[in-house]
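Q: What residues go here?
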C-alpha cells in the first residue's frame, strides 16, 4: 500500500495565451539544472546501450533521415474550439506526438485515433465536450510515484469515470540531431520526471546540465526544429522516428523496472463484472477523531477486500480544520481526502456492503470507477 500527501486538491488550471502550447518550452536562457529527488534514486542502474558510430540502424530498422514535424498534429490548447470531429474511437493524451502517453493510448486501444492535448486539463475537457471518446492519463510511476495533478482533476471532472487501466514500461532513449555524438552533448532536455529517472546515467555519460520542458516528445521536437548540436533529448524511440533524430543510447533509465500506470476515463462508466479481475477506485473524507481511518480501513479488511493503493490529498474545499484542544489558541489541521484502489468489482455484493458501511460515517464518498485490472505485460 502506498500513502502520500502533497498539494491541495483541484488547483485551478493554467491557461496560456493562444500559440503557447505544451511543445513550446520556456526560452533556453531561462533553463536551469534539474536535480533528481529522493523518490527517483535507484540502485544497480542498467548500463546504457550506445549505438555504433555512424550506424543509423536500430534492430535492423533505419531511422528516417528527416520528417517534417509541422505535418504532425498540434496539441489542442484551451484556446481551441473543442468541437466533435471525425469518426472512429478518439483517445486524448497530454503531450506531443511520440509521447509515452500516446504509446499507452495505442496499447489500450490499438486502432484508435490519438488526440494530443496541451495540458492534462485539456485532455479531460476534450472527453467532456465529445472531442475525444477517451483520455489516457498517467496516474503513477514506479520510480516517481503519483501524478497528483490527475488525482485533483479526477475529482473536479465529476461527469467522467475511470473505465480501465494500462501499464507501460518506459524505456528512455538519448536522442540528438544526425551527426551529433554523445561526447558533443553538454545538456539533456526532457520532462523533469524523465530527467530525474535518468539522472545517474546522464552524469556517467558526462552530460551535467539539464533543461526541463513540458513533455519528452516536445523536447525531441524542439531539438529537431532548432537543430541544436550540443543538446540531447530524453524521449522514446518513436519520438526519434517522428522528428528525424538519431538514437545515441537506449534504456538509459537508472532503474530497469520503470513502469507507468495510466488510467482511461470516459463520459459513461462501464458495467462491472465478476468473471474477471476488477479494480474499484473511490475517494472519501472522514470526521476528525481517534480511530476514524482505522474504522474506514476495517470495512474492507473484515470483508477480505485487498487495497492496492491509498493516496491522501488535502481537501481544497475544507483545507484547514479548527480543533479546540483546550489551548489558549485553537489549533488548525489539514483536512484530507483519501483515494483508495480496491481489488474488487462493484458487481460484487461484498464490495457494495463495504461501501455502504463506509458511507455510514464518511463525510464524503464517491466511486471514481470500477474497471478491469490490467494483467498484461508492461
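A:
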Amino acid at each position: 500500500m502506498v500513502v502520500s500527501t502533497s498539494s491541495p486538491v483541484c488547483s485551478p488550471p493554467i491557461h496560456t495565451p493562444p500559440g503557447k502550447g505544451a511543445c513550446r518550452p520556456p526560452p533556453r536562457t531561462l533553463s536551469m539544472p534539474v536535480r533528481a529527488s529522493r523518490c527517483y534514486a535507484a540502485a544497480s542502474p542498467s548500463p546504457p546501450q550506445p549505438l555504433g558510430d555512424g550506424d543509423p540502424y536500430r534492430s535492423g530498422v533505419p531511422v528516417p533521415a528527416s520528417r517534417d514535424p509541422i505535418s504532425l498534429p498540434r496539441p489542442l490548447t484551451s484556446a481551441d474550439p473543442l468541437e466533435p470531429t471525425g469518426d472512429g474511437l478518439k483517445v486524448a493524451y497530454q503531450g506531443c506526438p511520440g509521447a509515452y502517453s500516446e504509446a499507452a493510448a495505442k496499447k489500450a486501444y490499438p486502432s484508435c485515433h490519438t488526440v494530443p492535448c496541451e495540458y492534462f486539463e485539456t485532455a479531460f475537457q476534450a472527453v467532456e465536450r465529445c472531442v475525444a471518446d477517451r483520455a489516457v492519463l498517467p496516474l503513477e510511476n514506479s520510480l516517481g510515484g503519483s501524478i497528483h495533478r490527475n488525482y485533483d482533476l479526477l475529482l473536479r471532472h465529476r461527469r467522467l469515470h475511470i473505465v480501465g487501466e494500462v501499464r507501460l514500461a518506459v524505456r528512455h532513449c538519448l536522442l540528438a540531431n544526425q551527426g551529433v555524438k554523445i561526447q558533443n552533448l553538454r545538456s539533456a532536455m526532457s520532462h523533469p520526471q524523465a530527467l530525474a529517472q535518468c539522472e545517474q546515467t546522464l552524469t556517467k555519460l558526462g552530460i551535467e546540465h539539464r533543461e526541463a520542458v513540458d513533455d519528452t516528445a516536445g523536447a525531441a521536437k524542439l531539438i529537431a526544429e532548432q537543430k541544436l548540436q550540443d543538446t540531447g533529448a530524453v524521449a522514446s524511440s518513436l519520438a526519434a522516428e517522428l522528428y528525424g533524430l538519431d538514437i545515441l543510447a537506449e534504456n538509459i533509465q537508472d532503474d530497469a523496472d520503470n513502469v507507468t500506470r495510466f488510467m482511461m476515463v470516459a463520459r459513461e462508466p462501464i458495467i462491472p463484472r465478476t468473471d474477471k479481475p476488477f479494480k474499484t477506485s473511490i475517494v472519501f473524507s472522514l470526521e476528525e477523531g481517534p480511530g476514524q481511518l482505522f474504522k474506514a480501513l476495517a470495512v474492507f479488511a473484515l470483508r477480505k477486500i485487498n487495497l492496492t493503493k491509498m493516496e491522501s490529498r488535502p481537501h481544497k474545499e475544507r483545507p484547514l480544520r479548527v480543533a479546540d484542544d483546550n489551548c489558549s489558541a485553537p489549533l488548525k489541521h489539514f483536512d484530507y481526502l483519501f483515494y483508495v484502489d480496491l481489488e474488487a468489482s462493484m458487481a460484487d455484493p461484498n464490495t457494495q456492503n463495504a461501501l455502504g458501511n463506509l458511507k455510514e460515517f464518511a463525510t464524503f464518498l464517491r466511486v471514481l470507477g470500477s474497471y478491469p485490472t490490467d494483467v498484461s505485460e508492461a
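A: Context that may help when evaluating the design: The chain has a mean pLDDT of 81. DSSP finds nine helices and 20 strands in the chain.
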